[in-house]
Amino acid sequence: MAESFVVEPTLPPEDALLFEPFRPEERLPVPPAPATAPRYAPYPPHGRTTPLLPSAPALFPWLARRFLPGEATLWCGPRVAVEPVLELLYAGCAQVKGRVSLLEGANRFHPYRVGELGRSLGGDATATLRRIRLARAFTAYQMVALVDGWASEARRHPPTLLIGHDLPTLFSDPEIRDDERTALLRHVARSLRRLADAVRVPLLLTLGPDGVATFPGLADEGPRWADWVAFDRGPATLRARALRDDVRLALVPRAAGQTGIEAFGGGVPAEEVVAWAVPPRRIGRRSRSG
Question: How does the average pLDDT of the chain come out, rounded?
Fold first, then answer.
């Protein structure tokens, strides 16, 4: 994927920290780079009437099975593994005319990459970005205020998917005392539960490799969990494991139409293997038989 432009960050005034339609012409600043058993909600008796994601590529149906209305799905793992899938999720949701309400805690939303992914899925880059309503916080206290007002925002502009990206990041500020940090994050967890109960659409929360250990209150006071997915990335493979059903997914770089040994019964039986579509690679030399 192409890298986005890097510009100097500018802080908006306090009253500008509201959810708003993302403007494709805006260039965003790019910053430097479970211990408790989850409380799962029961599966609903009937499937979702409106698709959350397209039926193709094959990654989308696997991801869609991890979400339930009014419940939280947690994605945990290093950013290099989580964020490419998250960007594809934005674009996929837009392809089925979905609306994303995004609360960004790490200021790592890359509009050009998301727009290009939307185009690669057959849509329009600008239309993809306009289906994302984005709010960014720059301090822990702004984050608390935005989470508290998220339900009201969702009622004014109903989303099909709520996403909280790296919400605990801002609470690691060394100027925030440990006891205050814990109290604030527990308050955020309770607010997220009220949000999920009120809005009744899927809620995605992304966390780092340490997962819920960085988010006090999420496991015991936050919303019920639809699923917990751990991501990891190797040199040529991205793997995901969904805890609820203990199902695993491997994304491998593979050109369209190319199959691997898993198609013939090889590989790990408990793991689905999905091609991570890439264009054919030129090897720069002629075949000796040509």
Answer: 78
Helix axis angle, 79-95 to 111-120, nearest 10°: 50
8-39 tens-digit pLDDT: 223 333 333 455 554 444 433 333 335 444 45
Burial of 241 (0-12, 13-18, 19+ CB in 10 A): middle
Instruction: List residues bridging with 163 in a β-sheet.
Output: 102, 204
**Model confidence over 119-166: pLDDT tens digits?**
999 999 999 999 999 999 999 999 999 999 999 999 999 999 999 999
- Alpha carbons 49 and 52: distance in angstroms, whole number: 9
Other beta carbons less than 10 A from residue 55's beta carbon: 10
Nearest Cα to 225, choosing from 198, 199, 202?
202
How many of the other CB atoms lie within 10 Å of CB of 49? 5
Q: Do 265 and 182 fall within a single domain? A: no
Question: Rounded to two decimals, what is the model's pTM?
Answer: 0.76
* Domain span including residue 271: 246-280
CA–CA dist 167, 76 (Å, integer): 12
Whether 196 is in a domain gets the answer yes
- How many domains does one find in the chain? 2
pLDDT at 225: 95
pLDDT band at 58 (very low <50, low <70, confident <90, very high): confident
What sign has the CA pseudo-torsion 12, 168, 88, 132? negative
Is 277 within 8 Å of 254 (Cβ atoms)?
yes
**Position 21 in a domain:** no
User: Using CA atoms, how far apart are residues 262 and 241, in angstroms rounded to an integer?
Assistant: 17
